[in-house]
Write a sequence for this structure.
């Protein structure tokens, strides 16, 4: 089973990298870019085959390491 | 004074801080590798600057979860002073010993230069020797030094006098122009509740002799020695 995890910045946390990406998109001529927020995508292959147990495991991973709960949110999908 | 310096893969200021500690106390610190779980009983633990684990995931995140940190956290909770410099500050926030987080610098650039700092308090383990100078000059060298915490945490730090240093101009004005990296309230360093743990982005260990460009960092190490001696 695979876990596909997105880690994103919480609202209100400044994202200078997202801002720089936004400026560069503008400079390349892309119009109508209102806002860019940069996050992380993490894919984990799990030995666990039970969806509920896998979900609990990934929850723990996100809270203990993958996301910094001061500034980040996470969400994930399990795919078999 | 028995000091321990924790060495992570890609720490690069561990030797500088060891030199500073030996210079001031006359005793070389124990250099403790991150992979072990044994940490000698210490009067002071230092988490040095560098780029532990290549700054992978988030600066300091992987180091904060390395085996030796369990012992560091245990000793810190029993009252052993911990000084985290630069990457060490990032490790302290990531391990939950200090609140907040160090974000990417607001200007996105790696900043390597001398900066001025206000000494916010001169009554702590780390600052008692700064009675005569309220503004010091020390270098910074970081990419992720933009101190961030939510409004409640910032007011708590301010109300409890836990801001240790602020970025300022040469006259001591903590202006927005002097805020090199976008840190909230120009914060360059903070204490824990007991002012026993200090995390700071600037490098006092790099300013301990005139031939290094100044002695702005020397009183910090002298303060520690005076108190712990």
């Amino acid at each position: 089973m695979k876990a596909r995890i997105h880690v994103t910045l919480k609202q209100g946390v400044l994202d200078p990298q997202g801002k720089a990406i936004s400026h560069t998109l503008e400079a390349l001529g892309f119009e109508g870019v209102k806002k860019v927020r940069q996050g992380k995508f993490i894919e984990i292959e799990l030995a666990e085959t039970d969806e509920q147990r896998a979900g609990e495991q990934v929850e723990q991973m996100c809270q203990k390491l993958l996301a910094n709960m001061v500034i980040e949110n996470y969400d994930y999908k399990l795919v078999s | 004074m028995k000091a321990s310096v924790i060495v992570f893969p890609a720490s690069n200021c561990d030797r500088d801080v060891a030199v500073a500690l030996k210079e001031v106390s006359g005793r070389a610190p124990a250099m403790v590798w991150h992979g072990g779980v044994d940490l000698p009983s210490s009067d002071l633990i230092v988490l040095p600057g560098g780029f532990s684990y290549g700054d992978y995931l988030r600066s300091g995140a992987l180091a904060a979860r390395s085996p030796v940190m369990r012992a560091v956290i245990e000793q810190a909770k029993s009252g052993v002073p911990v000084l985290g410099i630069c990457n060490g500050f990032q490790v302290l926030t990531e391990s939950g010993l200090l609140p907040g987080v160090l974000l990417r610098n607001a200007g996105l650039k790696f900043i390597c230069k001398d900066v001025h700092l206000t000494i916010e308090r001169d009554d702590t383990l780390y600052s008692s020797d700064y009675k005569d100078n309220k503004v010091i000059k020390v270098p910074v060298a970081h990419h992720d030094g933009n101190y961030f915490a939510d409004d409640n945490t910032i007011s708590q730090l301010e109300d409890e006098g836990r801001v240790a240093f602020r970025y300022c101009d040469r006259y001591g004005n903590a202006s927005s122009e002097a805020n090199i990296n976008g840190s909230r309230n120009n914060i360059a360093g903070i204490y824990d509740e007991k002012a026993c743990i200090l995390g700071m982005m600037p490098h006092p260990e790099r300013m301990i002799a005139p031939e290094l460009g100044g002695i702005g960092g020397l009183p910090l190490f002298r303060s520690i020695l005076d108190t712990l001696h």
Remarks:
- Chain A has a mean pLDDT of 96.
- Residues 2-79 of chain A form a domain with the Mth169; Chain: A , fold (CATH 3.30.1280.10).
- Chain A touches chain B at residues 13-14, 16-17, 20, 64-66, 68, 70-71 (CB under 8 Å).
- Strands of chain A lie at 2-9, 40-45, 72-79.
